[in-house]
Design goal:
mainly alpha
């Protein structure tokens, strides 16, 4: 994400005061979507025993990945960072 912010300023996608242009916001949203998809893929690749060890079940993966604040206990989001 840091690479995007640097590139956004270099290509004029971010304003001097830190606000993003429409294209900049779109690219930020796409980057967030891609990160959530990678996290979901990594969690789906784990077997049920490992998921149970970290305290989630397979049916919770999409909810955890797509919830606005991540997992309420923040246990999975930290693993994906």
């Amino acid at each position: 994400m840091l690479e995007y912010l640097t590139a956004a300023k270099a290509y004029g996608l971010a304003h001097a005061d830190g606000r993003h242009s429409t294209l900049g916001r779109f690219l930020t949203a796409v980057a967030g979507w891609r990160q959530r998809r990678r996290l979901a893929a990594e969690l789906y690749a784990l077997n049920d025993h490992v998921l149970k060890d970290i305290g989630i079940s397979r049916w919770e993966i999409e909810w955890i990945v797509n919830s606005s604040n991540g997992d309420p206990s923040d246990r999975v989001v930290k693993c994906g960072r």
